[in-house]
What does this fold into?
Amino acid sequence: MAVLAESGSNPDVELLYDINGLAKDAPHGFDRVMEFVGEYGLLLAMVLMVLWCWWSVRRRADEDAASSVAALVWAPLAAGLAVLVNVPIRGFVARPRPFNDHQGLDVLVSGKTDFSFVSDHATITMALGVGMFVANRRFGIAGIALALLEGFCRVYMGVHYPTDVIGGFALGTAVALLLSPPAMALLTPVMKAVERSPRAGWIVRSRRAPGERRNALVPGARKPVESEEKDLAA
It folds into this structure.
């Protein structure tokens, strides 16, 4: 990796200059927006999307709610585990940040002193996106799209090579998918136990199913069986 970084004629470096060159031509205000989005904004958006997906799953309250919530619990765990796996990888590869080896880059974020390969931001966002995909495809596709945007931002900001981002995508995907079966085998029974709990069951599913709420609101709707039995007993 270090050999590639020193060469200015390889596709990785050329693509770095092409994408980062967009920052040089963009207005200063736009670069400040990209700096916030790439450093903090998309990470926050991914966390909010996981919470939104959880809220949607529990309100739907179908029979797979426990396994879906288990997948959503696994998503941030996978992201954290992937970052831990990246620690020895970064130390082994020891690839300097691109602005340390290449002149003329427009670096939007200063103070980056750690190694470059692989990108933690790309790793975290892709692990969250793939984890959401296991729980809900619609949210997962949106999450993966945000992860791809995060990867573009890291190169645009001049703090990562394209291969750093691709490596992060691969690491996040591998951890989220390959470890998903044992993780789901452990987390799904836990979520089913939580679902049966009278106090914590709301974490997995809404107290009343959507159909029951509609029946309560629509005049003349048929009462649930339990209500009819209570009326007859009275």
Remarks:
- The radius of gyration is 23 Å.
- Residues 1-8, 209-230 have pLDDT under 50 and may be disordered.
